[in-house]
Design a protein that fits this description.
CATH superfamily of the largest domain in chain A: PurM-like C-terminal domain
Radius of gyration of chain A: 21 Å
Number of domains of chain A: 2
Shape of chain A: globular
Largest sheet of chain A: 8 strands, mixed
Largest interface: A-B, 73 and 73 residues
Number of helices of chain A: 8
CATH topology of the largest domain in chain A: Phosphoribosyl-aminoimidazole Synthetase, Chain A, domain 2
Number of strands of chain A: 16
Distance between the termini of chain A: 36 Å
Structural class of chain A: alpha+beta
CATH architecture of the largest domain in chain A: Alpha-Beta Complex
Oligomer: homodimer
């Protein structure tokens, strides 16, 4: 094991678990700060979780896994270590949010090149841990390896949702209205800023949605609890692609109204991003969801603005209408991070 | 998404799930061949698992995650695609075995370079899937990405174990006897064969324990059911390192008898590997376990030979004794795959 990896494991073990029991004879690692569903965390062949996380619940277990690879999902010269750690975990938390679930435990597989700066690892780990603490989950394990090239991370998040209540992509029906939380395109527009010539380093404070996005966990849970969303997905790949996933899994189509799509405001001085970023840019980690016609949606839920941007149709295609009502078919355009 | 990755997802979706429901309106994907604990597999934001996997059980959930990185854990010129897929999943299955657990679902995060041969991916996926089918688990999700360099895989295995019954590393007590399954050193000796000059390609059939190791799942479950093992670990890092893990977590020491350590027989014509490979070589995926003095262990369990190789002591150190009874302290030597 490399020194940097050992340091990360130790940091995660001590900071997240708060036990300091490494090397002791203690079997079941428990602490007030560790999510109580985790009976055995880092330090055995497997983590041992007692699900459901609270007694007398009936729940299903959610599992999601997401890569974060240097040069593909981030660049070390653009993204501070804290932002890399934060975005790494947000990918998984946002998937849990999109099912209406609650996160319980995270697992980090991390490969670092030889001779890697300890300071980077420390900032990366602290950011991961503080985001986990904010949302009540704990790191329960993972793997470390030497990387052949660059930083390679894979985050697994395990969550829970009341039995049979997970909000799937496949529940949209013709006539449902289509909503999105927050604003779209902010992350992709930030990437465009960084890739444009002359290249420049951005101040993360003015581009929060890219560098430090918040997962919409509370919103997702409220939509599930109140039975409001018939289908839901997070906008990790971009609106056109993620909406296509809902339509494909539900066997429906959709009509979007271009004017209604909430476009992100980023930078300093602040400017509104172009429609193409809101349509095709990924990694905004907002929630896109459909609502049956009979149900009312407030303008804000859990402090997050909610906007109706279209509705679900019988046909299998997605149309985008402009202000004059003229429409054209919208093809999903995959979001390729820094390769665009 | 790259074509090769799409092909893998499709293959895993169709071969493992056996549903062919991609794109249909079906919500909960079920099939006879899919582990029944998996309610929603590939194709939503998260997999949805209903644990415990059988009704009216009380179980704990096991989670393990393991990297398999090209150039670190395998080399494409030495390891056929089928061996890479097999070893990738065995790493996780062996961790489940070491807890006495039963595997339920696997998740594959896979990053491939651009322009990657489809045939390789097909063989890799088939091998993964056939091993999963053999042990009753199914692929329930994962992630794909473009790799900046080489093949990067991270396998997550989720399993179950009767509540409170997971066999931990921390249960060894002074006086317990120390056992190992099968033979040790075969995998590391195989790697040495391949790294020696003149370099040569080996026939995987004569080096099964390296290219196609079997996880000791049935053995682990029997040891747990019959309450025989007080502590257990799999020999993924090598005997000296894995025994040190048991000693550290249990707060004990150990004495090993060099003559008793079962050394692997590999190659054609077959030869017995040197003691150093059995002591320090990793990736044999045998089970190393401790047994209280009052319990009897048969010479074979589930068809696998079981050998007593030493016992647990009060002191915190590990000693290796030769035939004459002369001992010296054994330091754990980390197993570094192809860097040795």
């Amino acid at each position: 094991m490399l020194l940097a990896e050992k340091a990360l494991i130790d940091q995660i073990r001590h900071m997240a678990a708060g036990t300091g029991k490494s090397g002791s004879a203690g079997a079941m690692v428990r602490s007030a700060r560790l999510n109580p569903a985790i009976l055995v965390g880092i330090g055995d062949d497997c983590a041992v979780l007692r699900m459901p996380p609270r007694p007398n619940q009936k729940t299903d277990t959610l599992v999601t896994t997401d890569f974060t690879l240097e040069g593909i999902h981030f660049r070390r010269d653009w993204h501070p270590a804290g932002s890399v750690g934060h975005r790494c975990l947000v990918r998984g938390l946002s998937d849990i949010a999109a099912m209406g679930g609650e996160p319980v435990a995270a697992f980090l597989s991390l490969a670092l090149p030889r001779k890697f700066p300890q300071s980077w690892v420390g900032l990366f780990a602290r950011s991961l841990i503080s985001l986990a603490e904010k949302y009540g989950l704990s790191f329960a394990g993972g793997d470390t390896a030497e990387s052949p090239d660059g930083i390679l991370a894979d985050i697994v998040v395990v969550g829970s949702v009341p039995r049979g209540k997970a909000v799937l992509r496949s529940g949209a029906r013709a006539g449902d209205r289509l909503y999105v939380s927050g604003e779209l395109g902010g992350s992709a527009a930030t990437v465009r800023q960084m890739t444009q010539k002359p290249k420049r380093k951005l101040n993360p404070r003015h581009y929060q949605r890219h560098f430090f996005p918040e997962p919409r966990l509370e919103l997702g849970q409220i939509l599930r609890e109140r039975n409001l969303a018939s289908a839901m997905i997070d906008t990790s790949d971009g609106l056109s692609t993620d909406l296509a996933h809902i339509c494909e899994e539900s066997g429906v189509g959709a009509e979007l109204e271009a004017e209604r799509i909430p476009r992100a405001v980023v930078g300093k001085p602040a400017w509104e991003v172009a429609l193409k970023f809101a349509l095709h840019g990924g990694e905004d980690y907002e929630l896109l969801f459909t609502v049956p016609g009979s149900k009312r949606i407030p303008s804000h839920i859990a402090g997050v603005p909610i906007t109706q941007i279209g509705h679900i149709t019988r046909g299998r295609k997605i149309f985008l209408r402009n202000r004059a009502g003229v429409g054209h078919e919208l093809e999903p355009r995959g979001w390729e991070h820094f390769r665009s």
